Amino acid sequence: MKKASLSSLKENNAALIFECLRNNGPMTRANIARQTNLMPSTVSYITNFLIQKNVIREIGSEEVERVGKKGVLLDVNYDDFLFIGYDVGTAYSRVIVSDGKGNLHYSKRFKTKTGEQLLQQIFDNIRNIIEKYNVTGIGMAFPGFVDYERGVVIRAHNLEIKELEIKKIIKKEFKLTAYVDHNTIMMARDLLINNSSKEKDFVVVNIGPGIGVGIVSNERIIRGYKNAAGELGHITVNSEGRLCNCGKRGCLETESSSKGIVKNYAELSGKNFDCEEDCESLAIYQLAKKGDQNAIKAFERAGHYLGIGISALVNILNPEKVYIAGGVAYGWEFLKDAVEKSYEENIFYANSDTNIEVSTIGDYITALGAATFAFEKYIKEEIIA
């Protein structure tokens, strides 16, 4: 084992105090010491260091009824750090500017370009933002197979990109540090930070043109070997089903994604829908709202297979809660009954109290997760380290 140096001890303690304030602040130095089990003298030394680095600040005295000197409250200095959060979605992308606390200063949603045009679209959006905002860095979320340590999108077939060294490219083009990860992991991060009920074990199912899962166990992101955990969309739920673009037949993605719902409707109604160029289940949702029975059945079929997929996920992981997010979540009213029925038919009794709930964080959940991830990484790697 490598011995800890004084500098690494300082970095670890600074990161610990930063996390403590991030999760529980504002707090006094005495409360930080109790929460972290650090010596009061260590807390005093490290907090003074973090104040000098502008990471935290004193915000006033605590409100207590006891007699004696009141403690000084400390909190993270969120306001001085702005980060871009860029969610590169398969169908639509979202870009935001956010402070470290997740407050939105700017937001934009637009159709995603693919292949060689995608990089130019990313450049144009970043350039537009940095002309107006003094941003510190950028967090980027991609679908597909992502090497988060190198900042490389190894493959995202729906975006027609391979081996995109996006971290290196952003640094060269804009002199900005970019932090890159998978979109469902960024989504899970946002729930982990902003989740008011604070479950320690949960999953978030991202349903759009693809279906992926962000997994949190004991408040830690689960990645799996090679960062490929959570590919719920590619479990087989219908062995005689449609051919998936992964090469297998009957994947959950072919039945319950936005493309799957559109294809369900096309088969039920006999109407032709082009699902390769612009495939949006929103159109089917609008038909369902008007009472179109084929549209309602298209969602019900998707819900049946989604319930099977979620039950398999819950039976393996035993989370406290399942959050539903992504573009298809707006159609939950037409998915809900079918999902719950097949879920209950397939769930192991020990997992029967795991609840399924639609996330309320909204359309920018992934972009917010990317921005707050970038904020935390920047503080720990560029300032504290």
Topology:
Blueprint: H1 6-24, E1 27-28, H2 29-36, H3 40-52, E2 56-61, E3 72-76, E4 82-87, E5 92-99, E6 104-111, H4 116-130, E7 137-142, E8 145-147, E9 152-156, E10 161-164, H5 166-174, E11 177-182, H6 183-194, E12 202-207, E13 211-217, E14 220-222, H7 252-256, H8 258-269, H9 282-289, H10 293-317, E15 321-325, H11 332-346, E16 355-358, H12 365-384
Parallel strand pairs: 4-7, 7-11, 12-15, 15-16
Antiparallel strand pairs: 1-3, 2-3, 4-5, 5-6, 8-9, 9-10, 12-13, 13-14
Helix pairs in contact: 1-3, 2-3, 6-12, 8-10, 9-10, 10-11
Radius of gyration (CA) equals 23 Å
Mean residue pLDDT = 89
Q: Give the tally of β-strands.
A: 16
Distance between the termini: 20 Å
Task: Describe the strand arrangement of the main beta sheet, using strand numbers.
Answer: 6-5-4-7-11
3D shape: globular
Which percent band covers the strand fraction? 15-25%
Instruction: Outline the low-pLDDT stretches.
Output: none
SS summary, helix count: 12
Structural class call reads alpha/beta
Helix content: 40-55%
Largest sheet descriptor? 5 strands, mixed
In short:
The protein is an alpha/beta fold and 385 residues long. The chain is built from twelve helices and 16 strands.
Describe the structure.
The protein is of the alpha/beta class and 385 residues long. The chain has helices at 6-24, 29-36, 40-52, 116-130, 166-174, 183-194, 252-256, 258-269, 282-289, 293-317, 332-346, 365-384, and strands at 27-28, 56-61, 72-76, 82-87, 92-99, 104-111, 137-142, 145-147, 152-156, 161-164, 177-182, 202-207, 211-217, 220-222, 321-325, 355-358. The strands form 4 sheets. A 5-stranded mixed β-sheet has the order 6-5-4-7-11. A 5-stranded mixed β-sheet has the order 14-13-12-15-16. The two termini are 20 Å apart.
